[in-house]
């Protein structure tokens, strides 16, 4: 280890920013050097994407700049990470080689629409920030027909988000006075709406979307997409506008380095360790299995919790303390109803060694909490 230990953080999303800030809030520049590397220089809370779709937000006023990090004495390098040598503790970006003492891999999940033949030509990607304005434009101009929202692979980021999207779209169409001329169909490969939240919460979510005449089609495993047609393993469905949640995979270098096998993610335990010493992985790039073959959902709140866990353990190691923290698996995801209220799915992944979930009432107070969740992260991290 060099005189001042160097923590390198790959990815400036929920996991990376929570870890970087936790480290810097506890250790001075003489105790630790922190470097965040990301190919883009902005951070956005995922759910703001749906506010861009419904027109209550713009991209510009939903992002924070990673260029603010140096003000907190956290170095930021805007560059693409192309490989790493975990034995020899080196990371290669397109333009430089960086040595580390501790590495936190927080590179998120990659959207892979190319895995579904015909999708890129015939449908939109609801999670791609580059497509949000065009989706909004389509929703502002559609007059009649069928909108299909289709989950095309599991696991995907923020399991309730596509349901929330369907409710916000329903609200947009209602406000335009054309809801009765448009059908909203929701397709999922899963047997119930939210397998990660269990049958009770799934039933409540089903009732919620059904109450807005959104039609849920379960066990719909997509094979391909044609012009205005979804081809599933067992049947077909036509659409006028397709909003997809494409399959998610890990970044290519995770497979190149052998940390995971395609199309999977880095397998971790509650300490977020990899098989390499002082190399950790957190957030959407990982898979943390809980009881009953269930994994921690891909959500910012869990990436954040894992990032803080790893940071605490690195701090403890740097300070030669015995303290050791395990990720607690607690969090919550918001579901906006489209009627100026929101509910929260409260999750405790490890209570009595099995996940427990609870869906709160949909209230305007919870919607304020959602807005505050975003404001707080942007202001404390950047
Ligand atoms: C519509 C929507 C709604 C959501 N709502 C919620 C919600 O209500 N609550 C919640 O908790 N979560 C929500 N999420 C999920 C949340 O956004 C993700 O789970 C979270 O961002 C994961 O954090 P992460 O740090 O693991 O990865 P990310 O935040 O994706 O960060 C990974 C970073 O790594 C960088 N990177 C990747 N590869 C490279 C490379 N080769 N070189 C350089 N940089 C690289 C990326 O640019 C990215 O900035 C939502 C997501 C979406 C899309």
Give the gist of this structure.
By secondary structure, the protein is of the alpha/beta class.
Summarize this structure as a short list of keywords or feature phrases.
27% helix, single chain, FAD/NAD(P)-binding domain, alpha/beta, binds flavin-adenine dinucleotide, 2 domains, 382 residues, 28% strand, globular
* Major sheet size, sense and barrel closure: 5 strands, parallel
The value of Rg in angstroms is: 21 Å
| Number of individual domains | 2
Find the CATH superfamily of the largest domain: FAD/NAD(P)-binding domain
What is the helix content? 25-40%
CATH topology of the largest domain: FAD/NAD(P)-binding domain
Itemize the secondary structure elements and their pairings:
Layout: E1 6-10, H1 14-26, E2 33-38, E3 42-44, H2 48-53, E4 63-65, E5 75-78, E6 81-85, E7 90-93, E8 97-99, E9 102-105, E10 110-111, H3 119-122, E11 124-125, H4 132-141, E12 145-151, H5 161-175, E13 182-187, H6 198-210, E14 214-217, E15 222-226, E16 229-232, E17 236-238, E18 241-245, E19 248-249, H7 252-256, E20 266-267, E21 279-281, E22 286-287, E23 289-290, E24 294-295, H8 300-318, E25 330-336, E26 342-348, E27 356-359, H9 364-381
Parallel strand pairs: 1-2, 1-9, 2-5, 9-21, 11-18, 12-13, 12-18, 13-14, 20-22
Antiparallel strand pairs: 3-4, 6-7, 7-8, 10-19, 15-16, 16-17, 23-24, 25-26, 26-27
Helix pairs in contact: 1-8
């Amino acid at each position: 280890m060099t005189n001042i230990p160097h923590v390198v953080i790959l990815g400036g999303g929920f996991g990376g920013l929570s870890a970087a800030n936790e480290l810097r809030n506890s250790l001075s520049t003489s105790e630790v050097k922190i470097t965040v590397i990301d190919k883009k220089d902005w951070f956005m809370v995922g759910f703001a994407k749906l506010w861009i779709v419904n027109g209550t937000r713009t991209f510009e006023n939903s992002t924070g700049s990673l260029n603010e990090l140096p003000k907190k004495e956290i170095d930021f390098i805007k560059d693409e990470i192309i490989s790493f040598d975990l034995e020899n503790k080196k990371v290669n970006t397109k333009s430089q080689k960086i040595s580390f003492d501790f590495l936190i891999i927080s590179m998120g999940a990659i959207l892979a629409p190319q895995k579904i033949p015909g999708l890129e030509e015939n449908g939109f990607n609801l999670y791609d920030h580059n497509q949000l304005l065009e989706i909004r434009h389509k929703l502002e101009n559609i007059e009649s027909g069928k909108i299909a929202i289709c989950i095309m692979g599991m696991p995907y980021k923020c399991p309730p988000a596509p349901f929330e999207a369907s409710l916000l779209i329903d609200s947009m169409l209602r406000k335009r006075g054309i809801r009765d001329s448009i059908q909203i169909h929701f397709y999922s490969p899963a047997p119930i709406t939210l397998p990660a939240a269990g049958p009770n919460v799934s039933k409540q979510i089903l009732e919620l979307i059904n109450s807005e005449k959104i039609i849920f089609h379960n066990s719909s495993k997509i094979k391909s997409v044609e012009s205005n047609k979804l081809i599933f393993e067992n049947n077909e469905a036509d659409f006028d506008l397709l909003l997809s949640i494409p399959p998610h995979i890990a970044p290519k270098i995770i497979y190149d380095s052998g940390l995971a096998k395609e199309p999977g993610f880095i397998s971790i335990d509650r300490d977020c360790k990899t098989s390499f010493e002082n190399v950790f992985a957190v957030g959407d790039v990982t898979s943390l299995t809980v009881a009953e073959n269930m994994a921690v959902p891909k959500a910012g709140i869990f990436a954040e919790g894992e990032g803080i866990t790893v940071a605490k353990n690195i701090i403890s190691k740097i300070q030669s303390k015995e303290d050791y923290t395990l990720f607690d698996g607690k969090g919550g995801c918001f579901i906006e109803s489209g009627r100026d209220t929101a509910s929260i799915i409260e999750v405790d992944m490890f209570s009595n060694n099995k996940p427990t979930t609870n869906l709160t009432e949909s209230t305007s107070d919870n919607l304020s909490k959602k807005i505050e969740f975003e404001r707080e992260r942007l202001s404390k991290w950047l």
